[in-house]
Design brief:
The complex is a heterodimer of chains A (about 280) and B (about 550). By secondary structure, chain A is mostly helical. Chain A is built from eleven helices and two strands. Classes of the chains: A mainly alpha (about 280), B alpha/beta (about 550). Chains A and B meet through helix 8 and helix 9 of A and helix 14, strand 16 and helix 15 of B.
């Protein structure tokens, strides 16, 4: 199985995806070594890409209205986005998987209540939901995580619930029950691993959605509080000057797109071997 | 030309019968000739060829049965003849001729004029072969739309109705307007047969057409197919793994193994004087309806290990299981026999408490089993273990066999170390190599998976083993092996076995007692030999009469 996933990386789509995502991961890990300048340090405002810096270096992607190096902020922003998006997605998964397993396994009243909450949240316009959460609790990394969790967990809940209902009917679950296996073990050892292939694909896609959500929140000024380097926030700050200085908006947008595109391609590449595993199961 | 009517309604006369007309020209020659047909499997399969150099001839008014176990290449053969090999398969050589016309090199367009028109197919799963969203009558009319554009709408309708009528279906008008889910499996299969016959094809290919049906329905469909041969003179290629069915229907038999046809001959000769050792082996594996004279009855005086009293399960007003009572003693086997939907599987699930009964009592070792909860239930459920029907669904595909069996032993109270030893000992006991412990279920065949399921159940040290249709998904030879294994385990361990099956032959092989179930009730229960030799209830007699191949013992 794991061999299948590794093999899928040799296909062009998956390989492109892995390359993009891997590239951003390296950038995030090595931000402090790769960034030419301190992302918070003000120098010469609104320099164009390629302009010479006072210290003899080059502002490869120009500077923003406060004179900070755009490239350095982009590089540090990668770290922010990847860390916060991953944490947010994992929190959403923790909530969605646990509730989904319970609802799908026990059905009945548990399922009714959990599904009701999921449907209520899903019926809210997402943006309004984010606005309410951030406005009520204030802009911080933790609240961004909370907002993303609220937005994503119901969808994950539904996927896990459906997979669990399917697996619940298999005879190997009946065998475990008749052998007196504990419910926790049935959920975590018999059911969850059998849904992992589908969930892995969804995780990749959802990581991308979380990155987009962060961009949207940042753009609305609801993201991480300034001066944290944040791609969405950079677009927001550069928005008013975008006609005269397009580099302020263009580069953060490209960064978001390339990361999300990479994750989508990776998910696509993983989908085929995952589907095969599901069929065998 | 006159074509005798199947139904006697005379509406058949309106149908053209090209097969019959052409047959007058060369009645003696074969209609379908297969010569040296070779079908290649994709690289990495367990053998290079699905069908290896197969040659057959099929004449008018003849049923040729192709028999073989699963994986013998019989379905690959039929797929190749139909010009539609399964994905991954490729016709690598040989020829298929329909009245002299070479078929293997036809274009897909040319094939469309032949498939459903001159060669038609009947499938294994009647429900799956029909579109669930379209009334069946319309689906039959579609065949005319494809192959005979000249017919008007009302003519098509009339012919579809006539076909349904000739299939001996009750109330054809109602069936015409019904959706597949409103019909029973047997009715659906007859609709499929009607569709296949719509254009009066010269050749009918039936791929395991009765495998998914109950014995009584199977008997009716087999009778229908026999009539198609005798009365309408179709040439029928009938693919099956069941020698009982073969004995019932075949004019000639071709036995396949590993893609090769190893024996072809007239039915009576092959059945009574098989030439090839493999054919003899297959025939020997067919369980007979005669119960063994002495099944080694352990003194039945002991207290029952399992006592079921007035067990009942209702869904709304329907009683799936209705007032079932029986005792099961140590070292004995009770078979519950009935058709699908009679409630026999529900009964098994009630006993192991996978579902909760509406009323009644289940006592295990003299202790009431149904009132137990929590930890007490968890320790007591050891005593009753189950082997499941579907070997593919009953094992977690991701877990190694050794871990599965050892885990069961640990649940029965063993520590980690002894559990691992026990897994090894059990895998020997069920006749699998030790290496099996390190593999995952996908690496095993159906019969081997059932052995693993048995080992898992035995790891709990059960007193009662419930086998819920555990043999029905297996080939005759694997069936015989598993039956022998169960008998051996029973003798060694004094297990009480509750065998749930639709197959009286299987029940006859192993049971001390047989209970016949119909519509949620036990209609007859008694010693195996008595129930089979002198059945008292009409339904038991009907089941016995429907068992295919009674002449074959």
């Amino acid at each position: 199985m794991s061999v299948g996933w590794l093999k899928s990386l040799t296909r062009p789509t998956a390989a492109t995806g892995a390359l993009l995502v891997g590239g951003w991961l390296v950038v995030a890990l090595l931000s402090h070594m790769l960034a030419p300048y301190d992302p918070f340090h003000s120098m010469v405002p609104l320099m164009s890409p390629g302009a010479l810096a006072p210290d003899g270096g080059t502002f490869w992607l120009g500077t923003d209205s406060l004179g900070r190096d755009v490239l350095s902020r982009l590089i540090y922003g990668a770290r922010t986005v990847i860390v916060v998006a991953t944490v947010a997605t994992m929190t959403a998964y923790a909530v969605g998987v646990s509730t989904g397993l319970l609802a799908g396994y026990f059905r009945g009243r548990v399922d009714m209540i959990l599904s009701f909450f999921a449907n209520v949240i899903l019926s809210f316009p997402v943006l309004v939901l984010y606005l309410v959460i951030i406005v009520a609790l204030g802009a911080s990394a933790a609240n961004v995580v909370l907002a993303v969790t609220f937005g994503s967990a119901p969808a994950i809940f539904r996927i896990v619930r459906a997979l669990t209902i399917d697996l619940r009917g298999r005879d190997f679950i009946a065998a475990a029950i008749t052998q007196g296996e504990s419910t926790w073990r049935i959920l975590l050892v018999e059911i969850l691993p059998n849904s992992s292939a589908a969930l892995l694909v969804d995780f990749c896609l959802r990581l991308g959605y979380s990155a987009i959500t962060m961009g949207v929140l940042g753009f609305l000024g609801l993201g991480l509080p300034p001066p944290t380097p944040d791609w969405g926030g950079m677009v927001n700050e550069g928005r008013t000057l975008a006609f005269a200085f397009p580099h302020l908006v263009l580069f953060p947008c490209l960064a978001i797109s390339s990361l999300v595109l990479g994750l989508s391609l990776l998910a696509d590449g993983l989908r085929q071997p995952a589907a095969r595993v599901r069929r065998v199961a | 030309m006159s074509v005798p009517s199947l139904s006697g309604s005379g509406r058949w006369l309106g149908l053209r019968h090209r097969g019959a007309a052409a047959a007058e020209v060369d009645d003696a020659g074969p209609i379908l000739t297969v010569e040296g047909l070779t079908v290649a499997l994709p690289k990495g399969a367990d053998r290079p060829l699905a069908v290896d150099n197969a040659s057959l001839e099929l004449r008018r008014g003849e049923i040729l049965c192709v028999v073989g176990e699963s994986g013998s290449g019989k379905s690959a053969l039929s797929g190749a003849i139909m010009g539609a090999p399964a994905p991954g398969l490729r016709v690598a050589g040989g020829s298929v001729r329909l009245r002299g016309q070479e078929l293997t090199r036809l274009s897909e367009r040319a094939w469309c004029r032949i498939r459903g028109n001159r060669i038609a197919m009947i499938f294994q799963e009647p429900m799956a072969a029909l579109n669930p969203a379209i009334p069946v009558g319309r689906q039959i009319m579609e065949v005319f739309e494809l192959h005979d554009r000249k017919l008007t709408l009302s003519e098509r309708r009339e012919r579809a109705l006539a076909l349904l009528e000739s299939m001996q279906l009750p109330d054809p008008e109602r069936i015409f307007a019904s959706y597949p889910h409103q019909l029973s499996g047997g009715q659906c299969q007859r609709v499929i047969v009607a569709m296949a016959l719509a254009m009066s094809p010269e050749v009918l290919i039936a791929d395991e057409p009765t495998t998914a049906l109950d014995v009584t329905t199977q008997a009716q469909v087999l009778k229908l197919i026999r009539e198609l041969r005798t009365i309408r003179g179709h040439a029928i290629l009938f693919i099956t793994h069941d020698f009982g069915v073969v004995a019932e229907i075949a004019d000639r038999i071709a036995v396949m193994r590993h893609g090769c046809i190893i024996e072809v001959g007239v039915a009576r000769d092959v059945l009574t004087q098989p030439q090839h050792p493999y054919t003899r082996e297959l025939l020997a594996a067919v369980p007979s309806l005669v119960p063994p004279s002495d099944p080694g009855l352990v003194a039945a005086a002991s207290k029952p290990v399992l006592a079921v009293t007035g067990l009942k399960k209702s869904y709304g007003r329907v009683n799936a299981v209705n007032e079932i009572s029986f005792d099961l003693e140590r070292g004995t086997t009770l078979s519950i026999v009935g058709e699908s939907g009679c409630g026999k599987s529900s009964l098994a699930r009630l006993i192991v408490r996978l579902t909760e009964p509406t009323a009644g009592r289940v006592d295990v070792n003299g202790k009431c089993f149904l009132t137990l909860t929590g930890a007490e239930l968890r320790t007591s459920c050891r005593a009753v273990q189950m082997i499941f029907q579907d070997p593919f669904g009953s094992l977690n595909p991701l877990r190694r066999v050794g871990a599965v069996i050892a885990r069961a032993a640990m649940l029965a109270g063993a520590d980690r170390h002894t559990a691992r030893d026990r897994a090894g000992e059990l895998i020997d006991r069920v006749g699998l190599p030790r290496e099996a412990l390190e593999r995952r279920p996908a690496a095993f065949s159906g019969g081997q998976k059932q052995r693993i399921g048995i080992a898992r159940a035995l790891a709990m040290n059960p007193d009662v083993l419930i086998a819920d249709e555990s043999l029905s998904a297996l080939d005759a030879s694997s069936q015989a092996q598993i039956l022998a294994l169960l008998r051996k385990l029973q003798n060694e361990l004094g297990l009480a076995i509750l065998l749930i099956t639709h197959d009286l032959r299987v029940a006859a092989q192993i049971s001390h007692r047989i209970a016949v179930m119909q519509a949620g009730r036990i209609v007859e229960i008694g010693p195996a030999a008595r129930v089979i030799n002198s059945p008292e209830h009409a339904y038991t007699r009907e089941l016995l009469d429907s068992a295919p191949g009674r002449g074959l013992v």
